[in-house]
Specification:
The structure is a single chain. Helix content is 17%, strand content 26%. The strands form two sheets. The chain has a two-stranded antiparallel sheet with strand order 1-2. A hairpin with a 2-residue loop joins strand 1 and strand 2. The longest helix has 9 residues.
């Protein structure tokens, strides 16, 4: 059974599980990002702040990684939402 009002809608899921001291297991489906928010320095961010833990799974991000393009170059890419 389908609802025409829901046509084109999607869903995302992000789960983080503590698996030990200073360790998280992250699983995601969809386009949600996972960030670490901390006021203490860590192996993710030496300054303590908001740090991106996951990588975008888009065409632009994949090609950019393969070509060694910077995040700034990817933001200016004409297909930035692909």
């Amino acid at each position: 059974m389908s609802d025409p009002e829901l046509e084109g809608m999607g869903t995302t899921l992000l789960v983080a599980r503590n698996i030990g001291e200073d360790r998280l297991q992250i699983s995601s489906v969809g386009d949600s990002r996972a960030y670490l928010c901390s006021d203490k320095p860590s192996n993710v961010n030496s300054n303590g702040a908001l740090s991106l833990l996951t990588q975008d799974q888009t065409w632009v991000a994949e090609v950019g990684a393969r070509l060694g393009l910077s995040d700034d170059a990817l933001k200016k890419h004409p297909c930035g939402t692909c």
